[in-house]
Amino acid sequence: MENYIIEMLNITKEFPGIIANDNITLRLKKGEIHALLGENGAGKSTLMSVLFGLYQPEKGEIKKNGKVVKINNPNDANDLGIGMVHQHFKLIDIFTVLENIILGVEPNKLGFLQKKQAREKVLKLSKQYGLEVNPDALIEKISVGMQQRVEILKMLYRDNDILIFDEPTAVLTPQEIDELMEIMREFAREGKSILFITHKLNEIMAVADRCTVLRKGKYIGNVAIKDTTKEELSRMMVGRDVNFKVHKKTKELGDVVLSAHNITVSSKIHKNNAVKNVSFNVRAGEIVCLAGIDGNGQTELVSALTGLEKISSGSITLGGKNITKANIRTRSMSGISHIPEDRHKYGLVLDYSLEKNLVLQRYWQPEFQTFGFIKTKAVRSYADRLIKQYDVRSGQGPITPVRSMSGGNQQKAILAREIDKEHELIIAVQPTRGLDVGAIEYIHKQLVARRDAGKAVLLVSLELEEVMNLSDRILVMYEGEIVGELDAKATTVQELGLYMSGAKRSITKENENAG
Amino acid sequence: MQDKTVSSSKAFDNLKKVGKSKGFSAFTAALLAILLGLIFGYLIMRIASPANSFLGFQMLLIGGFKRIGDVFYFATPILMTGLAVGFAFKMGLFNIGASGQYTMGMFFALYVGFMWKLPDSIHWIVCILAGMVGGMLWGLIPGIFKAFLNVNEVITSIMFNYIGMYLVDMLIQGNAAMYISSKTRTAYLPASAQLPTLGIPHSSVNISIILAITLALILFIVLNKTTFGYELKATGFNKFASAYAGMNDKRNIILTLVIAGAMAGLGGAFAILAPSTIAGSSMTYEPVSVIAANGFNGIAVALLGNSNPIGIIFSAVFISHIQRGGTLASLYGYKPEIIDVVIAVIIYFSAFAMLMNSTVANLIKKRYSKKQSAKLPSADSKEGA
Q: What transmembrane ranges does the database entry give (chain B) (predicted)?
């Protein structure tokens, strides 16, 4: 009989209209790192929410050390020693690190906070595990990696020994990921048990002991990492063989399509400039990737290029034409296609039908209107063609409300619309975010096909694997500046990480040179 | 196993079809809402005066049929203000300024009616057009504020309700040709400025109801068939996506509020230019510093009509019908104030219940479609086990 600390047996959790977990069993041994692998929507988060007491399962039971336990809410989970680092941190921005750690379990005397003993405990823990934090720093002032440490310290402060990490590496640089892995190993050595939720196979291979795979709400299997390969895991996760490598032919570079000179964009949220004096070119027939950790000015830079936001200084040229002052539609007609970062907010009118969304950039062109009246038939046949050509799947074809479509098909619809429109440059911002492997493959292929057709592609991505696979040239953004320009073939993920974290820069600040 | 899936999906298809037809769900929701409003209204009459409540309520319901001409006459202005609110709402703008636009439209129509000497055949037409211009002006200003300075249209249009009302009262009181101070009312309009009647006896119903319905139909076509309507609704649904698609939101905001203002202004013109049932007289306006109620009634009309121009036609007629019935119900000893309360309860309860209902209907619709997709795999797994 194996020694399991937590057993989730035959868990079934239904939501109206969907079975998120269908008869899933997960057994966690004491002192192991157990990966939970699955695509988006496979039911990982639901299963963890059941363990954490956020949802009650319809069927199945949870055992701790062989005894059946009932977890009704996160406090019950906490009492059982279960702690969780959520994918989106649950921290209060305007509180200090210390205040966030003790939140909910504040030590007090007659209602008065006793911060001193809390501070001692936090400092002791942080020293013990090498989780350096400044207890008095405000959350909003510290880096994302640091915020994650605070989340980990929160679990340790509560003496949890079953630690759940929900997609913890999504926001980290490669170096920070390595550090996190080391910390996880240290926890395991001490006898803490770790559940590590992810869809990144490399990380599982690197750190986990065993792995449970879910697909579409169902339990697929459990394997020991030392007996398996990355390929086998991906086959279990997706249900078929997956091609990781994107095949690209070498391609002659064409003319400069987009060129940006000394662009500065002021930030809407903060007082400072989000993009500082950035210059770069994108040529026909190449995929240039803007890499960087989220929030280093990529979003603002793209808004400036597409015309969604004004620039405070600098100039933008597209195919030799100055478009610095042009409005969004002029830019779009001059040849910029834009796959926006947030497809629900910008890319689609969710309450419109699929066909209406497919003409969102073109409804006013003579092809689709006469004297201001929309040509319904022309729109329909155009939509039918795009749906067929780009394999956009939906319940009712062109009249399907876009809101009811899956994320992958929504993205395909945007892709179809932007690719089919005449363009010289595609700006794709995190085009594969939240999509399953099949859709990711498809979108990657389409972007490479655009490059091969002699178009310029500017890709903004946070996924390092995507950056390494797709791009010809990589520009790294850090704190609103381009700090490095790398050849995708010659660089490594580690080098990229150094640039992303600001530890290295090959392009010096112009202002410093001047001063 | 194949058969089973097919048959179960068929049953769900039928349910889905009913749920899916948007018009159906909106229509049933409106009926349910009205029913709830009526029940609530009856309860109030019951409390106010139990003895007569049944007869009184009966009159409230069917009284309007006895005054069919008046029902349409009184429906006209609120149909127009309803369009003014509903049309702007499609773009996500809350045009609470329909009252001010209505008052301005009325003043412009009055001014042309009194001050301009025109041939009989076109005088009333010019009056109507002047009313439209007045309303447009009062829609344009909040539109400019919203588009260029991002001032919330609710705030500007509330202020413009007051500005419009006081301005009009001041201008009328200062104009000897228009205002008879001994009566504290405007003078009688010349017959040439009054709208052609439809000839229903004892009623002021006139050509304007036909114009109003025509305008509603035109707005319906604009919203659903034109690029402008496409942009307007896209902006209403998601202003970020419309900006992303390069739509000119500043122009659209102004244009929408100008059109909305035109509708409310026409409403004001239609109301004041209506022919009187007594020969030699006309409708008059009393400048007493009160915001025009027809503007606010337009909000209820638009809400009950789900901001759909066709729906607004029906909701305007319904509300007018209840109001006529209510007036007659006072024959059973109900004080006019109680009747007003009952009418208000019915209108607003209907409108709010309508809002709730359409939310509920949407929820049910979503459930059905999801259940269907979930039902299939679960049936499969049962077979497998």
A: 24-45, 71-89, 96-116, 122-148, 160-180, 200-223, 253-275, 338-364
Q: Which residues of A touch B242 (CB under 8 A)?
A: 349
CA-nearest of B240, B382, B294, B328 to B56 is: B328
Residue to mutate among A360, A362, A414, with most B CBs inside 10 A, is A360
pLDDT classification of B322: cutoffs 50, 70, 90:
confident
Lowest mean pLDDT among A42-46, B60-64, B209-213, B333-337: B333-337
Spatial separation of the C-alpha atoms in residues B360 and B356, rounded to whole Å: 6
Highest-scoring range by mean pLDDT, A105-109, B11-15, B101-105: B101-105
Inter-chain CB proximity A349 and B242 less than 8 Å? yes
Query: Given its phi and psi angles, is residue B306 left (phi above 0), alpha (psi -120 to 50 degrees) or beta?
Result: left
Percent of chain B with pLDDT over 70: 84
The phi, psi pair for A208, rounded to 5°, reads: -85, 155
How many residues in total does chain A contain? 515
Q: Are B141 and B149 in contact (CB under 8 A)?
A: no
Closest alpha carbon to B373 in B19, B13, B24, B3: B13
CA distances from A488 to A6, A111, B298, B384 (A): 44, 58, 62, 49
> Do the Cβ atoms of A18 and B238 come within 8 Å?
no
pLDDT at position A348, please?
A: 94
Helix, strand, coil shares, percent, chain B, to 5: 80, 0, 20
The letter for the amino acid at A334 is S
Which ipTM score applies to this complex?
A: 0.77
Contacts of A16 in chain B (CB under 8 A): 367, 370-371
Contacts of A390 (CB under 8 A, 6+ apart): A412, A413, A415, A416, A419
Q: Where in chain A do CATH 3.40.50.300 domains reside?
A: 4-238, 247-335+424-515
Token representation of residue B236: 């209403």
Residue A93 to residue A96: CA distance in whole angstroms = 8
**Beta strands across the sheet bearing A4-15:** A67-69, A59-64, A4-15, A18-29, A218-224, A210-215, A33-37, A193-198, A162-166, A82-85
State the Cα–Cα distance between residues A297 and A317, nearest whole angstrom.
20
Contacts of B237 in chain A (CB under 8 A): 349-352
Q: Domain A247-335+424-515: which topology? A: Rossmann fold (3.40.50)
B2 to chain A, any CB pair closer than 8 A? The answer is no
Name the region of A371 (left: φ>0; alpha: ψ -120 to 50; beta: rest). left
Closest Cα in chain A to B369: A17
The two tokens of residue A102 are: 């003790």
Tell me how far apart the alpha carbons of residues B336 and B290 are, in angstroms, rounded to a whole number: 19
Percent of chain A with pLDDT over 70: 96
Q: Are A204 and A327 in contact (CB under 8 A)?
A: no
The answer as to CATH 3.90.1150.10 being correct for domain A4-238 is no
Cβ of A374 within 8 Å of Cβ of B228? The answer is: no
**B chain contacts of residue A346, beta-carbon cutoff 8 Å:** 240-241, 243-244
8 Å CB contact of B367 and A16: yes
Q: What is the DSSP letter of A164?
A: E
B278 part of contact set with chain A, CB < 8 Å: no
Q: How far apart are CA A150 and CA A100, in angstroms?
A: 8
- Spell out which residues of chain A touch residue B241, defining contact as CB-CB under 8 Å: 345-349, 360
The answer, yes or no, to whether residue B297 has pLDDT greater than 80, is yes
Tell me how far apart the alpha carbons of residues A47 and A53 are, in angstroms, rounded to a whole number. 10
Dist. CA B85–CA B157, nearest whole Å = 12
Say whether pTM exceeds 0.80: no
